[in-house]
Every structure is written in C-alpha cells, then in structure tokens.
Amino acid sequence: MSNDDDLLDAAFLALSDPVRRQLISRLSRGPATVNELAEPFAISKQAVSKHIQVLEQAQLVTRSRDAQRRPVHLNPARLEALTAWIDQYRLVREAQFRSLDAVLRTNTAPCGSSQKDRQ
Amino acid sequence: MSNDDDLLDAAFLALSDPVRRQLISRLSRGPATVNELAEPFAISKQAVSKHIQVLEQAQLVTRSRDAQRRPVHLNPARLEALTAWIDQYRLVREAQFRSLDAVLRTNTAPCGSSQKDRQ
DNA sequence: TTGTTTATCAACCATCTGGTTGATAACAAC
DNA sequence: GTTGTTATCAACCAGATGGTTGATAAACAA
Question: Which residues of A touch B86 (CB under 8 A)?
C-alpha cells in the first residue's frame, strides 16, 4: 500500500462489495465492533473481520483499542479522496458536453440526435 | 446487472483497476477506439477490450458505431452516481465530527487527544 | 477477388476473492 | 485458577479476475 494508485485500487475494490458498503453505511452512524457489525449479516464474523481488514487496508476505516474490543471508525478523509478522483474526470467531461450542447444549439437548429464520435 | 446494488458493485469494481482508471482518464478527453486506447499500454488489445467490457457492464462507458470502428464514450452520469453514494455517508460522518469538535471545544478546554470510541 | 483494419470470441492459466471451519490469543469477571 | 467474550489466524475450497495466444468476424479498400 505504498503509492497513491495502490490506495485508489484498494479503496475502489473495497467499495465493490455490497457487504462492505453496508459496513460503511453502518459506520457512518458511529464506530462499532466486529461483533456488532457482523450481527445483521448471515455470514460468519470471521468473514466480516476479513471485510474490515480490506476496508482498513484501503484506509477507509481505522481501529482503536478498548480492552479486548477493537472498535472500527469510518475515515471520511479517504472517502473524499475518492470523490475527488471521480469528479476530476466527471466534471471535465460534463463541461465538454455542455459546450458541445451550446454549439449545437446555436449553429444547427433541429434537436436531432446526430452526435459525431471523434471530436 | 438488474438492481442498483449490482450497478454499484460493477462500477466500483471497474474503478479498482489502474488500467481501467487510466482508460477513464483518457476518455474524459473524448471518445476513442479500442486500438487507440490500447496503444499506451504494454498489454494486448484483447486485454484492453476486456477492460472496456467491464467498464461497459458498469455503464461507465457506452459504445457507438462508425463503420468497423466501435468508439468508446465516457458516461458522466454513472460517475456522478458514485460520488452521490460516497457523499451520502462521507458528509454525514463529517458533520458528526464537526459537531463533536464543537462540543469538545466549548465544554472541555485543553486540546488533548482523548476521543471515546462508543458514542 | 484479395488484403487490411478493427474488434471480439474461445481456451487456457496463475492469482485473487469471499466464504467456510477449527484453533488460538487477549482480556474481563468470577 | 476457570469461564466467557472479542477477535484474529490458518488451512481449505469454489468461483471470479486479468493476462496470454490463436482463430474468427465485420467493414471497408484495392
């Protein structure tokens, strides 16, 4: 987990599983232990523990220590890094769509669906 | 690829690979064919074609037809769905952090690092 | 027709993923 | 000490993923 690319790999991979996304959802309402997190699921707590390790490696969550408990906390900063990556490309493309739209609207009149591929 | 959850699965999985993220990056500058997309990479174009199929299944890209070419287009709408999902939880948690911060700032004076786990 | 370009399909293979069960470690309470 | 709770580790397994090579199809150009 050295460079930035590996962190993005790990984070997106972590979010590609519905169980892990539900864990994120639960943690957005506050920290929780593995047992608490595992309770709503039909799978073993070992499996949940593995899921949490995946999230932890991606730095989407952190752990603390409270006797034998190891509460899991959400890390919003890492979530923000993901939206930042996505928006970097989404916004560029949407801006191009808007300007293309403006060109089509002013030059050619009818609102036909004739979009050329190579710009 | 029926429900919303499957689409999120597919989309986050699609972005968990550095090659596919670079494809997204390239496509944010405009449509391109498989051969054009494969050129910068050391892997075969069959491999790139597979990557594009993964992106297409996630509806992050679309294809069109231009003679024997099949140009690939970015789909910003799907990218936006991802940021929407992330922000849904990121913003909740950050808001909680801010209010906790405010409570700590007004009630207890010294800026020590004593955060309790269970809220 | 023949050839070229573009792109996918079909096998195949090594590795990773997500789940299981059983054993183990660390701590709390008695 | 013993018992119970919390959590991880280790080994295993079925299926998915990411890459390869070779064959094939589709749309042109000559």
Answer: 15, 79, 82-83
Distance in Å from D24's C1' to A87's CA comes to 40
How big is chain B, counted in residues? 119
> Is pLDDT at B107 greater than 80 in this prediction?
no
Beta-carbon separation of B96 and A30 below 8 A: yes
Sequence-distant (6+) residues with CB within 8 A of A18 are B5, B8, B9
* Pick from A15, A86, A59, A80: nearest CA to B8: A15
Domains along the sequence of chain B with CATH: 4-75 (1.10.10.10)
pLDDT at B115: 39
End-to-end CA distance of chain B: 38
Q: Which nucleotides of D are covered by protein (CB under 7 A)?
A: 4-10, 17-23, 26-28
How far, in Å, CA of B74 to CA of B56, rounded?
A: 9
Token pair of B97 as six digits: 């952090």
pLDDT digits (tens, 9 = 90+) for B22-74: 999 999 999 999 999 999 999 999 999 999 999 999 999 999 999 999 999 99
